[in-house]
Amino acid sequence: RCVLKELESLGKALYGAKLIAQKFQVRNCSHLKNPVSGSACLLSMIEEGNPHHFFIATQDQDLANKVKKKPGVPLLFIIQNTMVLDKPSPKSLAFVQMLQTNQLVPEHQKQSIVQLKEKEGLTKQEGEKRRKRKRAGGPNPLSCLKKKKKTDQSQEPSAKKKKRNRKRNRVKKEVMQSVQKEEEE
């Protein structure tokens, strides 16, 4: 009702907006006798955790910023003839996360779990540090280097090296025959 009163007071410039607003269901607010501005009325309706699950549709940036500070209030706005539902605010995400964790384990059970852990000595001590596991590393960086090309300087020292000629010492046939004879005797 406060929004409709504000639109009436603004005159013919917002007559179309007033007709559109009148087509929707009008919620009673606590400002029946003393109407306040539309944004103040909308903010008062979503107080105390938005019990009626209202959505707020606005183009007013100040109102949008105030709505984002309250958890659990969806925000709609229009961009180029398209209605857009704004992503949940960080406050809303944190509120939902808190509700989910509280629903998983009741508070009295959390306290009993902490007491049991202390009794069994499973609580983390401040001085205790965990060892880090060694993980498999990559290849040796030296093995990944490109092979070096041979230069003229590196070939010269190898040319200076002399080749050894090894001669095989052969035992003469006569010596072998004499050794065999001696073994037979």
Characterize the structure shown:
Belongs to the UTP23/FCF1 family. UTP23 subfamily. Residues 107-185 are annotated as: Disordered. InterPro entries: Fcf1/UTP23, PIN-like_dom_sf, UTP23_sensor. Involved in rRNA-processing and ribosome biogenesis. One of its GO terms (biological process) is rRNA processing. By secondary structure, the protein is mainly alpha-helical. Among the domains are: 1-45, no CATH class; 48-119, no CATH class. It is 45% helix and 6% strand. The protein contains 8 helices and 3 strands; from the N terminus they run αααβαββαααα. It has helices at 2-10, 15-23, 38-45, 61-68, 90-104, 107-120, 152-160, 173-184, and strands at 56-57, 75-79, 82-85. Strands 1-2-3 form a 3-stranded mixed β-sheet, covered by helices on one side. A hairpin with a 2-residue loop joins β2 (75-79) and β3. α1 (2-10) runs antiparallel to α2 and α1 (2-10) runs antiparallel to α3. It is elongated. The protein starts with a helix and ends with a helix. The mean pLDDT is 79.
Give a quick set of tags describing it:
185 residues; mainly alpha; three-stranded mixed beta sheet; 8 helices; 3 strands; PIN-like_dom_sf
Q: Using only CA atoms, what is the Rg? A: 45 Å
Proportion of β residues? 5-15%
Average pLDDT:
79
Strand order of the largest sheet: 1-2-3
Task: Estimate the global geometry from the Cα principal axes.
Answer: elongated
How much helix is in the residues?
40-55%
What does this entry show, briefly?
With 185 residues, this protein is mainly alpha-helical. Helices cover 45% and strands 6% of the residues. This is UTP23 protein.
